[in-house]
Design brief:
By secondary structure, the protein is an alpha/beta fold. The protein folds into 2 domains: 203 residues, Spore Coat Polysaccharide Biosynthesis Protein SpsA, Chain A, CATH 3.90.550; 100 residues, no CATH class. It is built from 13 helices and 9 strands. Strands 1, 2, 3, 4, 5, 6, 7, 8 and 9 form a 9-stranded mixed sheet that branches. α10 crosses α13 and α12 crosses α13.
Length: 347
């Protein structure tokens, strides 16, 4: 594991963002409270993000605006600066600029890494700061409550073993969304493990108040599924194949068939499709209740999971359109100018 065993010298933090305002202030203050080795990567902010970061002693990387932004590219450049600036780094914690650490989290993750030689990625419970502000914020909070234990991937907040990160070549900068799961595929392929601990990790500020934002976020997920399946969809990994297939079947093929056959069936095909949707919602709801969700949360989550299929299908089609036509993949963001997120994180 190396000769360094002090968290404040062995662990560094890389945060990425653009025009995060108060969210970035909370993010960087929470990072500085746990380690002195912090790098902030700015994706062309027009507010005082860079000036604030520098004012509290955070190392700043300003991304070249002539190259398309991706979270993967931003994190790679931040990690490169981190290990250039501090040579004792053995672990790096990445997070989005709209997140802040929970007290003591990095110590918990660091101790787990030290005790488990094969662990290369560790994450905990990411929570939404204001889940009651909108049903869309609540959906984020529910989605992030994933099973505890060994996992296949992490999200945008996680502690990485730098040795494993470097061994696989870091993030793939061409991945515009879902960059952590794609990275975890390669890390697991080297024999390392990914873990989610039963501890509070970060608070996130989604600031989603409109359905259009939720649609864009789901569309981005569909794009990530399609790209992930294209890159690692072959056996035995089958990365994102199930998610991509589900989006296309429920969000594209079945509704097209239902509408296309409606003239011949006097609308019966549409009724059958709607009944199938209701049955699927009920099946998901039942499964969510079995794992401990409340009936209210299980119902809401099931409905939104199925509604998201249409947006995800559009994201899948967008990915393949861009690939076939050779068009440059650009970010799919769900926050507007007043609430801009980072350069493509997982929030």
């Amino acid at each position: 594991m190396g000769e360094h065993n002090d968290l404040r010298t062995a662990v560094g933090v890389v945060a990425i963002g653009r025009n995060e305002g108060d969210r970035l202030r909370r993010c960087l203050h929470s990072a500085k409270a746990q380690t002195d080795q912090v790098v902030y990567v700015d994706s062309g902010s027009t507010d005082d993000s860079v000036a604030f970061a520098e004012s509290i002693g955070v190392e700043v990387v300003n991304l070249d605006t002539s190259i398309p932004f991706t979270a993967a590219r931003a994190r790679n450049e931040g990690i490169a600066r981190l290990i250039e600036r501090w040579t004792t780094i053995e672990y790096v914690h990445v997070l989005d600029g709209d997140c802040e650490f929970q007290d003591g989290w990095i110590q918990i993750a660091y101790d787990f890494m030290r005790a488990n030689e094969d662990a290369a990625v560790v994450c905990g419970r990411r929570r939404e700061r204001n889940p009651g502000a909108s049903r869309y914020n609540l959906m984020c909070d529910l989605e992030w409550d994933t099973p505890i234990g060994q996992a296949r991937s992490c999200g945008g907040d996680a502690l990485f073993l730098l040795k494993a990160f470097n061994e696989v070549g870091g993030y793939n900068p061409s991945v515009i969304a879902g960059e952590e799961p794609e990275l975890c595929v390669r890390i697991r392929g080297k024999g390392y493990t990914v873990h989610r601990l039963d501890h509070e990790m970060t608070l996130h500020d989604a600031s989603m108040t409109r359905f259009s934002q939720y649609w864009q976020r789901a569309k981005r997920a569909g794009h990530a599924y399609a790209q992930g399946a294209d890159m690692h969809g072959k056996p035995p990994e089958r990365h994102c194949v199930r998610q991509t297939r589900s989006a296309i079947v429920w969000g594209l093929i079945l509704p097209i068939l239902a509408i296309g056959l409606s003239w011949w069936t006097s609308g019966l095909s549409i009724a059958v499709y709607l009944l199938m949707m209701c049955a699927q919602i009920w099946r998901i709801r039942t499964g969510q209740i079995k794992i401990g969700r409340s009936k209210q949360h299980a119902t809401l989550l099931a409905i939104f999971i199925m509604l998201a299929k249409y947006a995800q299908a559009s994201g899948v089609l967008l990915y393949w359109y861009r690939k076939v036509t050779g068009k440059q993949a650009t970010l799919i963001e769900y926050k507007g100018a007043a609430d801009t997120q980072d350069g493509g994180g997982n929030g």
